[in-house]
């Protein structure tokens, strides 16, 4: 009986250790993804700004919604 309890406790300790490892790995992955998402948001804002800046550099005729002359 004592050996069964000891074996069960050992099994539970092993499972706990594996779960701790898995949780740590998932935490590292989540932290890395968060960092990547923050950088992607910054990159997106820069691209939006560049796009808006390039629109102001174009002549108004090109930007407008004019119908081309062949229509």
Give me the count of strands: 0
Q: Please tell me the overall pLDDT.
A: 89
- Report helical residue fraction: over 70%
Counting helices, strands and paired strands, the structural category is mainly alpha
Q: Secondary-structure element order, as H and E?
A: HH
Q: Evaluate the radius of gyration.
A: 29 Å
Number of helices: 2
The first-to-last residue Cα distance is 92 Å
What is the global morphology? rod-shaped
Please state roughly what percent of the residues sit in beta strands, choosing from under 5%, 5-15%, 15-25%, 25-35%, 35-45% or over 45%: under 5%
Stretches where pLDDT is under 50 for at least 5 consecutive residues are none
Main β-sheet description: none
Task: Write structural notes for this entry.
The protein contains two helices and no strands. The longest helix is centred in the middle third of the chain and has 56 residues. With 71 residues, the protein is mainly α.
Q: In short, what is this structure?
A:
The chain has 71 residues and is an all-alpha fold. The protein has two helices and no strands.
What characteristics describe this protein?
71 residues, 85% helix, mainly alpha, rod-shaped
List the helices and strands and how they pair.
Elements: H1 2-57, H2 60-63
């Amino acid at each position: 009986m004592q050996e069964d309890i000891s074996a069960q406790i050992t099994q539970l300790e092993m499972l706990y250790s594996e779960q701790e490892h898995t949780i740590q790995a998932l935490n590292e992955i989540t932290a890395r993804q968060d960092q990547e998402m923050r950088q992607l948001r910054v990159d997106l804002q820069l691209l939006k700004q560049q796009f808006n800046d390039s629109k102001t550099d174009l002549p108004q005729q090109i930007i407008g919604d004019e119908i081309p002359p062949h229509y």
